[in-house]
Amino acid sequence: MNNFSVGMAPLLEVAGLSVDYGLKGVPLRAIEDVSFTVRAGEAVALVGESGSGKTTTAMSIAGLLPPNARVSSGEVRYRGKRLPIDDDAAMRPHRWSETSVVFQGAMNALNPVHRVLKQIAEPCMLKLGMTRDEATARARELLELVGIPADRGSAFPHELSGGMRQRVMIAMALACRPSIIIGDEPTTALDVITQAQILKLLGKLRSQLNLALILITHDLSVVAESCDRAMIMYAGRIVEDGTVADIFTEPKHPYTRLLIESIPSPAKGKKILRPIPGDPPTLLNRPSGCAFRLRCPFAMHVCAAEDPRLDPSGRGRVACHLHRSLTQEQKVAAHA
Ligand code: ATP
Ligand code: SF4
Ligand code: MG
Fold first, then answer.
1. Superfamily classification of domain 12-98+180-277
2. N or C: which terminus of the chain carries fewer CB neighbours within 10 A?
């Protein structure tokens, strides 16, 4: 349990979760020892470059890992109870009614030949045991809740704009009254104005329904506006976890610092995104020790030898040898 959960039981606990993908029969570690908690109503961002393990973490929680994935250690608990995340059939009663996912690109996730009202009503019948009339009434309510006039429910997905389709996806995600919504890049395919509207809607629903939100994004400006806490992932691990205020004003991990420095800021005359030099490792070429060391401006000898643990640091957690409390002797050895 980390500092953030003190005083309030967490809704979700992810403890020591490691997941492998089988590639030609060889297991490759995609996420390693991922641990965090989420409280009711809290908005937590998962941030990191492509391939850092954000989707794998989210899909593990939702019990939606692909067939070649294997949970090699750890567990996920919802309201204190262990979820059978690696058992598709056993996970069915939990999926969508406890944790729901809003994916990127609603056009692919919606059925093109069914009217949207029907698609929202279906889970209400299947999961909540409602009659068709009850489910239709609930689907109309849900459409209004996400800002779509109920009568638009007679439309097919292709008759709606991208933003409207994403609202429909959010309505579907809410159908079975979950306590946690996971948004996996839910606004990436949208223009800036629609993106802001969808984030505003998620924020409104969060406070209205006391929903917890796990928001996956590459975009730190989205994190600043929509989340309470941010977890920074690199090469399958959480490397920093802190309140959004702390992460933005006092980032501790060198990777977090570089991510924040890479945000374009017209106020500072910095209009162009400055990417972090070098590439993140793949599952096949993770370096020894700290996975960030080949890109890190502060790398020391110890960074090649020892993978830093994610330790408590201030009000958050950080995995970096710069933030370990070293003895004088260890400090001399580290810089030798
Ligand atoms: P992105 O920002 O691109 O969506 P991500 O942070 O969500 O990236 P993941 O999709 O979780 O990253 O992938 C983590 C690692 O696992 C990557 O190296 C990816 O190539 C690999 N991976 C993901 N899914 C599979 C799969 N089904 N089989 C094999 N490897 C996979
Ligand atoms: Fe850089 Fe070393 Fe910290 Fe890794 S452990 S981020 S290489 S200083
Ligand atoms: Mg992803």
1. P-loop containing nucleotide triphosphate hydrolases (3.40.50.300)
2. C
